[in-house]
Specification:
By secondary structure, the chain is α+β, with helices and mostly antiparallel strands. The chain has four helices and three strands. Helix 2 crosses helix 3. The longest helix has 13 residues. The radius of gyration is 15 Å and the shape is globular. It starts with a helix and ends in a 19-residue tail after the last helix.
């Protein structure tokens, strides 16, 4: 559940991870600790966030492969709401 939450959110604090599937934080913390011990997720610091955050190891590896020397040339319109 933690891995799926992080897959969907990318980076998140423990309260965010717990809230994604509406789970109690006390249930999620041991799973986070286990995944950190297995090195499947990493603890990271995000500027201006009060809590530490977590990131999947594979997402960090993908981010390190990005070529950030040139700005992205694509634009996307994102909406939280579906319209019919």
């Amino acid at each position: 559940m933690v891995m799926r939450s992080l897959e969907c959110m990318g980076i998140a604090t423990a309260p965010h991870i717990a809230d994604y599937y509406r789970q109690p934080l006390k249930k999620i913390r041991p799973a986070i600790a286990e995944l950190m011990e297995e090195k499947a997720i990493l603890e990271v610091t995000v500027e201006n966030w009060r809590h530490c955050a977590y990131l999947r190891k594979e997402d960090l590896e993908r981010a390190n492969e990005l070529d950030l020397t040139e700005p992205a040339s694509k634009t996307a319109l994102l909406s939280l709401f579906l319209t019919t």
